[in-house]
Structure formats: C-alpha cells, structure tokens
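Journal club prep — side note

Before the paper discussion, L.F. wants everyone to see what a predicted structure for a comparable chain looks like in token form. Sequence:
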Amino acid sequence: MALCAGALIGLVSPPAAWALDAFQESAGQVVMEAERYDAKLARGGKDWTAGTAKQGYSGTGHLQCLPNDGTTIDTGFVTTSAELKYNVQFATTGTYYVWLRGWGTSGGDDSAHAGLDGSGPASADRITGFPASWTWSRTTMDASAPATITVASPGLHTIHLWMREDGFIVDKLLLRTSSSSTAPSGAGPAQSPRITVSADTTPPTGSVSINAGAAVTAGAAVTLTLAASDAGGTVSQMQFSNDNVTYSAAQAYATSTSWTLAAGDGTKTVSAKFKDAAGNWCAPVNDTITLDTTAPAVTISSPADGAVFGAGP
C-alpha cells in the first residue's frame, strides 16, 4: 500500500493559497445575478452574451446563449456546452433547489442545465418552463421533478449553468434549501453579498491497496481498497491505471472498487489518483501484487514409474 503525496501533479510543492471573490450563502439561500458570473466558457460556436433587450430584467442586464440557430445539447453538455460558473461560499450543507429566472422566446429556446463542482447531475439538468416573459422555474423535464443539487460539505463550491437550447435567456439564479414550490415574486430576492475567500489549491491525500494487501493473487480480477481525504473539502473522484500512463475514466470516489490487472503472470502495479471538489488531483499512488495464474507442476519420483508391488509371500 502506498500513500498519496500532497503535491499538485507536475509541481514540487503546492503554491501558496490564493484568494478570490465568491457569493456568500446564508441561512440556506444564495442569489446570483446571471451577468455576475466568475467565469464564462464559449463552446461549439456558442457563448452567453450580455443584453438588455428584454425589459424587466434584474441587475444590469441578462445573458442569452447565441447564436440562436436551433441547437440543443441534451447529453455530454459538461464538456461541450457554453458554460457559466459562479463561486459560492456555502455554510449550510444539504439539498438545494435550483431556481432560474429566465425567458424562452419559443419552445426551442426555453431550457438549460445546472450543476455543481464540474458535475452535471441528472437531478439538475434540463430545467424548463420558461414562456416568452420573465418567469421563475425549477421544473425539469424529468416528470416535472424540481431541479436539485446536493452540497455535501461547507466551503467554496462552483455552481454551473450550461446551455441546453441556444436562444435561452437567463436573468438570475436562486438556490435555496427550502422545498417550497412557491416561486419568488417579481425579480426575486436581492443578490447575495460577495466575500473574499481562500481557494483550495491543496490536493487530497490517499492510499490504494490491492486485495487487502495480499502478496499474490491467482486471478487478474482484484479488489482495490481506497482511502482518501482532503483538508480543504471533500474527495470527489478517482481513477486508476495499470501502467501509470493510461488512466480509467474518472468515477465518483468510493472506498473500494473492482479492477482487472494487466495480463500475464508477474509483478503487477496499480496506480490511483484522487481529486477533490476544487479540482485538485493528487500525484499517483501505487500498490503491487504478484499475479500467478499457473498451477504448480507435480512430479512423483518414488516409486518409479511402472514399478509393481506385491502383497508379500
């Protein structure tokens, strides 16, 4: 079993902590003007564009995903859709209901995806219910279930909004732990205050053990036991490799998982990496085991082959 070094990959030591601005959640609620994003990513020829054409907006304007040519991205949106990011400092953990104040010019311009910390959960995708007027909605296309995200730990997190249908116009985002189905009235509550917080730049630490530390295995199918922690938040993902070059797809962190060793008898090494909610990956950690799939050869040296024994005189 090997322990994960607490250094960013490619760096001898982590840089000093830095500070950034974030919206401050309070009493289970945080409110963000759409145009006050902390980062904006254009993708696939689409971008969230500032505007003031739709009167009645809150703040200094609204954002619309343009150009509007009828494009819809229903899956894989985390890496392919135009994106908005909002830093939020949470004090209250739990389930948050995601409300958007939006405007859908037509039925092909009235939905978006939301998410948390780089993930677009099914519980918060395909938010819809926006006519051609400013409307608050938390309704998803999943049997009209309300959009939710789960904040598992206090501290700095990132709220995401991705394009589903181009042409959608967003004015404001509201996250609250209240399960009340009553929508905010008018422009809704005032934007939450901004505060300066220290960002998490320290990767998690962890370990990997093959078959509970066994020295030898007769089969390539093994069980990995994982243990990881993060001083600045939570461990969110993990991935593995048999050669420390090609890694499996990132998956949600768990304390154990099944794995298949590389083919061929001999010493096998499994490498593991862990990522925290802030996006920091730790350097690879390793464990080794001997794969021995060959049954032992048995030779009988005595009595000699063909020897005959009687019962005696």
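L.F.'s comment for the group: The mean pLDDT is 91. Keep this in mind when we get to the figures.
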